[in-house]
Amino acid sequence: MTARTLLLIRHGESTANVAAAAAEAAGVDVIAVEARDADVSLSPLGELQAGALGARLREALPADAVVYSSPYRRAIQTAQFALGERVPLRIDERLRDRELGILDRLTAVGVERRLPLEADRRRWSGKFYYRAPGGEAWTDVALRLRSFLRDALPTDSRDGVVVVFAHDAVVSLFLYVLLRMTEAQLAEHLLTHPIANASVTELSFNGAEWHLQAFADDTHLTAAGLPATEHAGEARTDA
User: Fold this and answer.
1) Strand (E) positions, the chain?
2) In angstroms, what is the C-alpha Rg of the chain?
3) Mean pLDDT, the chain, whole residue set
4) How many domains would you assign to the chain?
5) Tens digits of per-residue pLDDT, 60-81?
């Protein structure tokens, strides 16, 4: 099915988002997360955010919408709280968050203190091309998203709606690929356009190119009386 509408949804606030914010504020080296990245769950607020998202999506989505999710627990939970467990999810590992390798669980100051040579190499290579040992560059994630798009959005069939539950870096790189951004444009976008938890980014296809219709819309949270959270995640902290 060709998607004429693509909805990109960042997961609700996670326990790791909360732990990372606390670690950065305290100036410590290591983020106290309770599980590996794939198993991090939503925070209590994140569950409420996902529920508020569901009130919006259930009114807007057609019955034949196709729903994909990152295999990571926080993304799957967001989809399930929003749409219910009966809605079939197509889990695709290409939608997972960027792998940080040896930098995993370290704060920005932790990288500087514990891995100064890597910090220097990251500054020299730049955010887009730097690949930590055992991890991925942003270009690696872009490559797997191009593969996903070829499979999920074929060009020879009918209109439709595709929903993707994923992560802030993944949403940003979808925009990079579909809107044909340059490295410099992506860097500027990351600095000036935070992606709130449980927000909706919408793109439409006119038969020739993709257009951004809404970016990180979280008005459903305001309507539900919930705070919007803009945890930077790794999308804006590993420059």
Assistant:
1) 5-10, 66-69, 90-91, 161-166, 200-205, 210-217
2) 17
3) 93
4) 1
5) 898 889 999 999 999 999 999 9
